[in-house]
Amino acid sequence: QVQLVESGGGLVQAGGSLRLSCEVSGSLFSSKAMGWYRQAPGNQRVLVASITSVYTTTYTDSVKGRFTISRNNAKNTLYLQMNSLKPEDTAVYYCNTVPGMFTWGQGTQVTVSS
Prior knowledge:
By secondary structure, the chain is mainly β. The protein is globular. The chain has strands at 4-7, 10-13, 18-24, 34-39, 46-51, 57-59, 67-72, 77-82, 91-97, 108-113. The chain contains no helices and 10 strands. It is 0% helix and 48% strand. Strands 2-10-9-4-5-6 form a 6-stranded mixed sheet, with no helix packed on it. It has a 4-stranded antiparallel sheet with strand order 1-3-8-7, with no helix packed on it.
């Protein structure tokens, strides 16, 4: 059974940076398109960045130019570098395949203060 373990969240001031990590158990990681999703209070979970098995990346408009998704297949780990953070980036961040096929992990909380 695949497990997703997100980490790296925290409290940061607007304009700051955080780097999220997601460790994925099992042997399927390298062949899967992966993504970072976020869910703000009262809102649905949405995809904000994705990376294919051949390293093609896509971003939702609100994070373009500020967030960078990457992956290390040797470590079965997905990353999200978040720069120039804004209060509206506050959410719980999750990783999963695109579309999400694995059981969701616990996520990591990102809080950006103004």
